[in-house]
Amino acid sequence: MLVIAIVAAIVIGPERLPKVSRTLGHMAGRLRRYVRDVKADINREMELETLRTLKDQFLDSARSAGQTIHDEVSKMHSQAQQIDPHPDALPSKAHLLSAEIPTDSTTLVELGGGFLPQPETALWSSALPKTVT
To answer: Model-level pTM greater than 0.70?
Structure first.
């Protein structure tokens, strides 16, 4: 580095050396800013891709959980019909399974806590016989 400075002082001359040094300093600063901005853009894109992957995994898990709940409700309804096959004693299977399985993030938000019956409004409390043997 020192050798480059000595050669530059000889070639450029002492009168123009400060101006050339200043110009080189400005150019080096611009280059550093440009590299920093490119690094920040790359990091932002990587974080965005990570968030997209996490969102997709979450939606897959939600769909899987929704399908499991759907299957379990169907199974429980079938078992309940075997215990008391009177159609008026149980809520209809169509009513219990009327909730759609989420397919995108909008559906998940719209469903909120309403995907499963809430304890206060659960159909099972009044629909099932009081004693089950």
So the answer is: no
